[in-house]
Amino acid sequence: MRAAVLEKIEDFQIKDVPDPRPGPEELVIKIGACAVCGTDIKVFHSGHKHIVFPRVTGHELSGEIIEVGKNVSAFRKGQRVAIAPAVPCGECYYCRRGFQGMCDDLTAIGYHYDGGFAQYMRVPERAVRNGCVNVLPDNLSYEEAAIAEPLACVINGQELSPVKLGDIVVVIGSGPIGSFHLELARSKGASKTILSEAAQERLDAAKVLGTADIYVNPASEDLVKRVMDESSGRGADVVIVACSVGKAQEQSLQLVAKRGRINFFGGLPKDKPFINFDSNQIHYKEFSVVGTHGSAPRHNQTALSLISEGKIKAKKYITKILPLDKILEGIMTVEKAQGFKTIIKP
Ligand SMILES: [Zn+2]
Ligand SMILES: [Zn+2]
């Protein structure tokens, strides 16, 4: 098969490699679509502690089952599926409590196992056993199914920092993750959604798609003042920081209402993980600050149904589709934050 093999840091080779074969408890899928994620950019430039090169990366993926291991009875050839890439052990304390994203021995497709930037992919036994393989509703395209993965992470995020009917929600960062947070907040009944984005071009792109009710560029407008104006001086019920900027995390504490919820959804750079804030704000306003990342297999199932039922309009965020040999162009497109989701169709 053809695969985009990441041979080492910043070195993709598009080449022929042996076709994957399923073990007795495994599947092989023909990749239908694999979206490029921000973490693919990080891995391309800096590698990852769980990646031993050479590795086929790509973890936001869907495809058709073309081979079924002899002991697998739950799936059959020809089924269209999405694969939740975070593969839990199914046995540790957190897995048993239903928090598979927190698994003590979490492994991941595109990291520990070869991923979706290839024609075919082996679905490891652990993924088959732990609910990571989800059959697609008939009306879902492979492209939409691929971006169920980032949506699943957003669903996990809003489980811990819930949006309730009538809430005012601020999202900082207009990338695909920020957009999905806004979409989900709206579908949960938020009364007003406010998007903050410092890059005017990206803010304009979000306006074209209509992701929020109110758009603020904090470089040219006082975000705290605007949020207070929009909420009768109360602040936002939920603030989601969907970017990797410490200053934005600090500012979120000034935006939130009493008893509100803040989610630090974007991780900070490894060399700059500290922020400063007035701890008394938390003490007196009784708001909560959580962080979330990743998702459990059940979030992927929910994401697929929300897209299938039209509650989340996934299609409009697909702004570029490229063949496998244009993988570098895909990586660069995402790195330059051009458009929303870029998808590779091997
Ligand atoms: Zn991703
Ligand atoms: Zn586990």
List keywords for this structure.
globular; binds zinc ion; 2 domains; Quinone Oxidoreductase, Chain A, domain 1; Rossmann fold; ER; 346 residues; seven-stranded mixed β-sheet; alpha/beta; 12 helices; oxidoreductase; six-stranded parallel β-sheet
Short description:
The chain is of the alpha/beta class and 346 residues long. Helix content is 30%, strand content 26%.
Tell me about this structure.
- The chain has 346 residues and is α/β, with parallel strands linked by helices.
- The chain folds into two domains: 202 residues, Quinone Oxidoreductase, Chain A, domain 1, CATH 3.90.180; 130 residues, 3-Layer(aba) Sandwich (Rossmann fold), CATH 3.40.50.720.
- Helix content is 30%, strand content 26%.
- It has twelve helices and 18 strands.
- Strands 3, 5, 6, 9, 10, 17 and 18 form a seven-stranded mixed beta sheet that branches. A six-stranded parallel beta sheet has the order 13-12-11-14-15-16, with helices on both faces.
- The structure holds zinc ion (2 copies).
